[in-house]
């Protein structure tokens, strides 16, 4: 595992000072090691991307689309190996790992289609003034740095890599040091497809590597997904270069349940929103707002559902929820359990780490959580759900919007007119109505307030990697 960096079309050994230990979170034990890239190797990767850019951006849209379809096909051919690696390094249950892979495949296929439509977007512009013509030209923004998180590796990188390549950009990708292995598949696929050297570069490392990439003067754009604390550092680096950024950051999202809901159906949506990926997702609906009229029926059923979830090692057991992905995250979630006890919160389910090997915690439910509680306001990134009651629709909207984040929300109601009205009033980037968190590549992803800048997926994801040029000509 030493040749872990893909630079200028070649696999090279890391020359950095950090040794990255890759862990199986269900056992709490390492199963691989690799050396981080050095700052000099980050320089080489950016230089390779810069050198490849003039030729790559002239490659026809149809050729770029063919490469993207090749990525989709090759991911499918590596299906079982990638699913197993997700289960082993992330702790994802098999059904979640399968959905992640399908999402990545769909993303490359979708942006292959959009790439083929790019020539249609270079079009004439109607002018009111006589004697001039004008046309719009869409060009790749240039060399982009992509920094992706550990909770959805392969997926988040596909959301960035596919539109960047479709637009004609060249790329330096930095995976998370927690899950550095699965993105190696993209370098292997690039080799298989004969992607021109330097179009895709992959550098692994910890904070030093990420800082070297985010502050690099050779980038034209940076796209980052991760925590708000690191995102603010990335933004500062970008401001020094006057460089555009896309930031997909944290969330503390609400799920609003009205009293006309079927209780069993509502429980299903609530459980999915907080336990998928063991709650380690920026979109986790970790604030439950439940109407007074249904709370007494719903909360006991929700408690039972959480207590009966099968939690275990996805490689050896049939499970509903796996472990937390890292020891650091396990310690963080455990600290919030301690805070809940200090605050005197009413725990209906869970509230503890599990007494077994690995980084497991119990799915947790706290009831009647006050709005000034740390658990109500802070992103925990674990399967920890806080519930409050509301009396009116207006109260529900006010409490849902009372957050420094604005990523997603879910509305549960049999009154579809009301559900749509509430969805329109919520200050977030994506709302589900009577659904689990189904994410489609054709829709956008991103948030308001502290949840980030810009959008990924859909045509908006491609637009983030395109620069608009207008050419105006005098006819006289």
UniProtKB/TrEMBL annotation:
InterPro entries: Ald_DH/histidinol_DH, Ald_DH_C, Ald_DH_CS_GLU, Ald_DH_N, Aldehyde_DH_dom. The keyword Transcription does not apply. Belongs to the aldehyde dehydrogenase family. The active site is at residue 248. CDD domains: ALDH_F10_BADH (cd07110). Keywords: Oxidoreductase. The lineage of its organism: Bacteria, Pseudomonadati, Pseudomonadota, Gammaproteobacteria, Pseudomonadales. Gene3D superfamilies: Aldehyde Dehydrogenase, Chain A, domain 1 (3.40.605.10), Aldehyde Dehydrogenase, Chain A, domain 2 (3.40.309.10). Residues 11-471 form the Aldehyde dehydrogenase domain. It comes from the Bacteria. This is Aldehyde Dehydrogenase. One of its GO terms (molecular function) is oxidoreductase activity, acting on the aldehyde or oxo group of donors, NAD or NADP as acceptor.
């Amino acid at each position: 595992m030493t040749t872990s960096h893909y630079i200028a079309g070649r696999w090279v050994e890391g020359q950095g000072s950090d040794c990255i230990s890759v862990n199986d979170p269900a056992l709490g034990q390492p199963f691989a090691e690799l050396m981080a890239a050095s700052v000099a190797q980050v320089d080489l990767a950016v230089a390779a991307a810069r050198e490849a850019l003039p030729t790559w951006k002239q490659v026809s849209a149809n050729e770029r689309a063919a490469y993207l379809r090749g990525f989709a096909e090759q991911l499918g051919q590596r299906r079982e190996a990638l699913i197993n690696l997700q289960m082993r390094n992330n702790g994802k249950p098999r059904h979640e790992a399968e959905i992640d892979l399908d999402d990545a495949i769909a993303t490359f296929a979708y942006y292959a289609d959009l790439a083929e439509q790019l020539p249609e977007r270079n079009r004439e512009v109607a002018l009111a003034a006589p004697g001039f013509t004008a046309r719009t030209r869409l060009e790749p923004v240039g060399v982009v740095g992509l920094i992706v998180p550990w909770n959805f590796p392969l997926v988040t990188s596909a959301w960035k890599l596919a539109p960047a390549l479709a637009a004609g950009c060249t790329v330096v990708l930095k995976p998370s040091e927690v899950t550095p292995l699965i993105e190696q598949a993209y370098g292997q696929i690039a080799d298989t497809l004969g992607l021109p050297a330097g179009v895709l570069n992959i550098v692994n490392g910890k904070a030093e590597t990420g800082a070297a990439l985010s502050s690099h003067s050779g980038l034209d754009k940076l796209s980052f997904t991760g925590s708000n604390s690191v995102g603010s550092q990335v933004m500062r680096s970008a401001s020094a270069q006057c460089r555009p950024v896309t930031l997909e950051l944290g969330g503390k999202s609400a799920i609003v349940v009205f009293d006309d809901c079927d209780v069993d159906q509502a429980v299903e949506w609530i459980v999915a929103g907080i336990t998928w990926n063991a709650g380690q997702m920026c979109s986790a609906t970790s604030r439950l707002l439940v109407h007074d009229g249904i709370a007494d029926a719903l909360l006991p059923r929700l408690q039972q559902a959480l207590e009966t979830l099968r939690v275990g090692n996805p490689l050896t057991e049939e499970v509903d929820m796996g472990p937390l992905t890292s020891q650091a995250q396990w310690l963080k979630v455990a600290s919030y359990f301690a805070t809940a006890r200090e605050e005197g919160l009413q725990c209906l389910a869970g509230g503890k780490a599990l007494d077994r090997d690995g980084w497991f915690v119990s799915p947790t439910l706290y009831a009647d959580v006050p709005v000034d509680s740390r658990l109500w306001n802070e992103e925990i990134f674990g399967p920890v759900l806080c519930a409050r009651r509301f009396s009116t629709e207006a109260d529900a909207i006010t409490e849902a919007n009372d957050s420094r984040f604005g990523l997603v929300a879910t509305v549960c109601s049999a009154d579809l007119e009301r559900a749509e009205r509430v969805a329109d009033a919520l200050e977030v980037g994506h709302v589900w109505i009577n659904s689990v968190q189904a994410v489609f590549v054709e829709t956008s992803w991103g948030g308001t307030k502290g949840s980030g800048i810009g959008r990924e997926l859909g045509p908006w994801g491609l637009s983030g990697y395109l620069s608009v040029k207008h050419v105006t000509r005098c006819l006289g």
